[in-house]
Amino acid sequence: MPLVKTRGVASAQGFGEFAQATVANYIEDVFSTYLYTGTNAALTITNNIDLSTKGGLVWCKARTGGTVDHALSDTARGRASYLISNSANAAGTVGVGDNITSFNSNGFSLGTDAGTNFNSSGDKMASWTFRKQPKFFDVVTYTGTGSNTTIAHSLGSVPGSIIVKRTDITAAWAVYHRSLANTQYLVLNTTAAAATGATRWNSTTPTSAVFSVGTDATVNASGGTYVAYLFAHDAGGFGLTGTDNVISCGSYTGVGSTQQDITLGYEPQWLMIKRTDTTDSWIMVDNMRGFFQTADNALEANSSNAEAAGVSVSGAMQPTATGFHLYNANSAVNASGGTYIYIACRRGPMKVPTLGTSVFGLSARTGTGANATVTGGQTDDAVIIKNRGSAVGDLFASRLTGTRYVETSDSAAEVAAGATILQTNPWDVMDGVKVGTTSTITNASANTYINYLFRRAPSFFDEVCYTGTSVVTNFSHNLASVPELMIIKSRSDVRNWAVYVASGGPTKFLNLNFSNALQTSSTYWNDTAPTSTIFTLGAVNTNVNFSGETYVAYLFATCAGVSKVGSYTGNGTTQTINCGFGAGGVRFVLIKRTDSLGDWYVYDTARGMTVLTDPYLLLNSTAAEVATLGSVTTVSTGFALDSAILADINVSAGTYTFLAIA
Description:
The protein is mainly beta.
């Protein structure tokens, strides 16, 4: 048989080489949460979702501006027709230049708003785009018959949930969910509990080819026109092997203040929850607007309320590496004994990056003393900000920890950032993080800063927030390769940073806030190396796993052409470290001596890595940058070391670990 050329890593779970005739599918190709500010003028949203040839749904909601309706438009009915999820109204229509003016191959375009809420001038907007794709999502239109019938669909799997709306006259939305009986239904535009009515779905469970509708006018009046949005459930179809799930329609019972984890098998980026045993709202959260332990910036599918009005689930839940965690007895999501259904979409990207610039951004800037956005050139999940000229700590913040941050140079617990450090909801931008006004840490006028911004991506970088157990525990992660560098910090107490490096092995540890050499302890990693899905922590070690304390773990790995976690032995003169990056060399290097005392040296091309006297910073120190003693330069394929000016980074026979990013 002929040989088939294949490529290596291409999925969040698939590694190795696979020969296959079909193109792999990834969540970032079929779903997007995109935030923008309305202009009431021509505006193009580029979210890299192909709607023009594949089809799908765009769902928009103003986050500010008072009470503003949701607005939904799909390719099956055309860009001129829109629906309102919080209303039973018939479909509205708009002119050629209004609202969605075109569905594009990489998103959609907007025109003037004309009062229908896709592009309200000055309002902060959220959009959720669902592309048609087997085993993910489908849009179907049909004309009612008035008698029991089946409707064909192209979901390619049994639907987990179906949302139906009559479009020609006023009629309530009808929702089918696999977790309810096929005689039950929910209403999207109200807070009502699940009701029984055999005439909605004809008491018939949908199949992978059709769904059934009865005689109720909300789903099947003779001559009525309808649209149905179909969501798959754990149907696979994604990733390199085609077995990864990206959407789930499940249920759970609330436990109140005792907390619980809901397992999906992946980390969600978008979640809609509805209590079914009593009246409550349809809660919508996503990781772009804020979905973390201390603040869930929810909207309600059944309400025109702004993001901060009438939605009280703040701090109730947080995504985990395998699902989501419920923290308290909030009625809308976790009342004791309450029953709930949900639709969840997986976090992306699933593709392994091939360019460093797609997952890592850096910039040198001057503080403005006014609210500003620090950009990295991509959607970012974590940031390190350092004042280059003042003796203040390095701020390390992330999307999962929200408005809180830790400092790399000390053992203090995380700090709730005031408005002068990080703005309210600092991560609700498509690129970068929002800093505040006058803090010396992030944005004091005329102060100089360096910013390092990281995007979570397979084989490059992942972040896990977890709660300690004081017993040997395996914690899941989504790095999708074996971590070679793990940096862990207690968020809730004064504890030293703990660092695992592959070159030291699972019996050794370092501390990011100290200059000490590798030390031996079985209580850090339980003498167990991490795997591509879990890392293991020992018992009762306060720095990594004390019962009830909350922690954050940052995981890095070698990603071909993007990052390199490695080690070298110093030679006392000069040497080049080949990272396999091609002609571009490195843009960022972190170096630590491991056999003896040595600081955590940081170099980057934004501040200069072209001459030996370009500056360095120390992650374990509050000191300002040292401007004349660098000795590390970027070269083709990697970086070069020269002991002539700074011997510490290349001492003869000294052993070193490093993280380099292209």
